[in-house]
Specification:
The chain has helices at residues 27-39, 65-77, 91-101, 108-119, 123-138, 141-144, 163-200, 216-224, 267-272, 278-282, 297-311, 331-343, 358-369, 385-394, 415-423, and strands spanning 9-18, 44-54, 82-85, 104-107, 205-210, 241-246, 252-257, 285-291, 319-324, 347-349, 374-380, 397-403, 406-413. With 424 residues, the protein is α/β, with parallel strands linked by helices. The chain folds into four domains: 9-116, Rossmann fold (3-Layer(aba) Sandwich), CATH 3.40.50; 120-188, no CATH class; 203-369, P-loop containing nucleotide triphosphate hydrolases (Rossmann fold); 374-423, no CATH class. The two termini are 51 Å apart.
Length: 424
């Protein structure tokens, strides 16, 4: 991986546009996103970027010989040390390109892993990134171990040049992965206990999801008063954050801010971060935050839907769609989007930055989570002051009287609150 303590590294970003690929993304927007990914990694200076149009992929080198030679000259003139390829680069292709250009080559998966490795803060996040990185590196031993051509001697080492060393390296990675899985299981057990504790509260869980840099953290901070890092940067948030929010009418929910999604999310990360994204699977309501001002907002929304499905979130799970950053649109477009949102079911147009439309969003969340309330009369002894205080704190007491036997309270509460009260 990159050494983040070194001086600034000059990087060049390439987006291969494969003409034969019917699912290829709009190249200019894709290149811009790739440059933003590079900017998100400390220590990198983007010296240049371009779209490389290819009729087909060259199996051993990705690019044709002429293009490789042309790019080599460009990289040398710009003193490039790192080439970032916005796509999948196989181990053999990576090795051959590095030899041809005499620079380090990193593909999209490798770059995202670098960013995640730089941003992870919680123990779980660090373990998950390390597991994903090892799984990725395991497939690249052909590139990583250039010393394999040397004949190795010593007790117990057999086989042809490099064969034993490569197997040893792979076994070492497998052993490390096994240790990490065990550590992650322990952390996961702790998270399970936390989830169980929240279930006993029990407040509904509202999960914010969306494409990276859609404004989830800004929205989270607005609604909770928290100070989660919110920057105009891809993957500004990595580790999940949860806060309690009191809705109009006194209902309380747990709001969860999650890692942003991205197109072509590496499979290693989808699997490794499944535990982190369990908050989404457990959520009572999913709030999909979209950057409605982005030129690729429709494609981004589809990417988010694809990842949610891959994670196992049911298609019929309760959802609200927030068309965020509406303030970045021209005035006429803002008005049109607000009218369209009002006419659409489960859609709110808003600006997390200015606060515009957030009252409507909170009302929509409350409406989705509003639970039936039953009215009952509770008889409490004078010694049950804690239970009485809890009822008043919940705001469910509508009438109270007392006599020599204790308190008599009329309450209107939800089934959740009744369950919580019984556990006091």
């Amino acid at each position: 991986m990159l050494n983040h303590g070194t001086p600034v590294t000059r990087a060049y970003v390439l987006h291969p546009e494969i003409k034969a690929d019917p699912d290829r993304r709009e190249p200019v927007a894709a290149l811009a996103e790739a440059v933003s990914l590079a900017d998100a990694l400390p220590g990198l200076e983007v010296a240049g970027a371009e779209v490389v149009r290819l009729a087909r992929i060259h199996p051993g080198r990705l690019f044709g010989a002429g293009k490789i030679a042309e790019l080599k000259t460009r990289f040398a003139d710009a003193e490039v040390e790192l080439v970032l390829v916005d796509g999948t680069v196989g181990p053999v292709q990576q090795r051959n390109l590095e030899k041809a250009w005499n620079v380090k080559v990193l593909d999209r998966t490798g770059l995202i892993l670098e960013i995640f490795g730089d941003r992870a803060r919680t123990r779980e996040g660090v373990l998950q990134v390390e597991m994903a990185a090892l799984s990725y590196q395991r497939t690249r031993l052909v590139r990583s171990w250039t010393h394999l051509e040397r004949q190795r001697g010593g007790v117990g080492l057999r086989g042809g040049p490099g064969e034993t060393q490569q197997e040893t390296d792979r076994r070492a990675i497998d052993d490390h992965l096994l240790r990490l899985r065990k550590q992650l299981e322990k952390v996961g057990q702790t998270r399970a206990l936390h989830r169980a504790a929240r279930a006993k509260v029990p407040y509904p869980v509202v999960a914010l999801v969306g494409y990276t840099n859609a404004g989830k953290s800004t929205l989270f901070n607005r609604l909770t008063g928290a100070q989660v890092l919110a920057k105009d940067m891809l993957f500004a948030t990595l580790d999940p954050t949860m806060r309690r929010v009191v809705l109009p009418g006194g209902d309380q929910v747990i709001l969860s801010d999650t890692v942003g999604f991205i197109s072509n999310l590496p499979t290693e990360l989808v699997a490794a971060f499944r535990a982190t994204l369990e908050e989404v699977l457990d959520a009572d309501l999913v709030v999909h935050v979209r950057d409605i001002s982005h030129a690729q907002t429709t494609e981004q929304a589809q990417d988010v839907a694809t990842i949610l499905t891959a994670l196992g979130v049911p298609d019929d799970a309760p959802r609200i769609e927030v068309w965020n950053k509406i303030d970045l649109l021209p005035d006429a477009a803002q008005a049109a989007q607000e009218v369209l949102a009002e006419r659409s079911d489960g859609v709110v147009a808003a600006s997390a930055l200015s606060g515009r439309g957030l009252d409507a969003l909170v009302a929509a969340i409350a409406a989705h989570l509003r639970e039936p309330r039953d009215e009952v009369v509770l008889d409490l002894g004078f010694a049950q002051g804690r239970q009485r205080a809890w009822l008043f704190d919940q705001g469910v007491v509508t009438a109270e009287s007392e006599d020599e036997g204790g308190y008599h309270l009329t309450v209107r509460w939800t089934a959740r609150q009744a369950t919580r009260f019984a556990a006091l």
